[in-house]
Structures are given as structure tokens and as C-alpha cells.
């Protein structure tokens, strides 16, 4: 008989689900890197034109977007914003 976990997930299912997690992490990393790139491009262009480094209302929109994930959503949004700031934000 195929061994199952408490909720009835077969060991083979776990292997497949882990593969999906690995794929999802790779996609998330790719998207985060692209987000950093885009955010830095916008920031550099704005500062070159004499504008501010940070646009608070835009950042509030980003924070609101992740609110459904609770406190961790806020941490995630903050991490994304900080990554986009790079060295300038430290
Ligand atoms: C990317 C921008 O620049 C900054 C970075 C933001 C972001 O990473 O989401 C949002 C607002 C700005 O502080 C922007 O103004 O849209």
C-alpha cells in the first residue's frame, strides 16, 4: 500500500508538490529580481529629473496590496520596497 500522511497525501504527491514549490520559488525570485530592476530604473529616472527618492503614496498602495497576507504581507511588501531602494535606502 502507498504510504500516506495524516491528511491522506501520498508520498509521491509530496514529491510532486515539492517540485511545484521549487518551481514557484524560482518564478518568485525571477519576478522579485525584475521588480527590483524596474523600481531602481524608475527611482534613478526620477532623481535624475530632480525628483524625490521615495513616493509615499505609491508605497502605501504597495503595502495595501499585500495587506490580505497579514503582518507577514507587510514584511514582504517592506522587503520588496527596500530591495528596490538598494543602497540608497540604507
Ligand atoms: C518605483 C517607484 O519608486 C519608488 C519605489 C516604489 C516601489 O518599489 O514600488 C514605489 C514608490 C517609490 O518610492 C515609483 O515611484 O513607482
From TrEMBL:
Gene3D superfamilies: Chorismate mutase. Residues 8-90 form the Chorismate mutase domain. One of its GO terms (biological process) is chorismate metabolic process. InterPro entries: Chorismate_II_sf, Chorismate_mutase_highGC-bac, CM_dom_sf, CM_II_prokaryot. One of its GO terms (molecular function) is chorismate mutase activity. Pfam families: CM_2. This is Chorismate mutase.
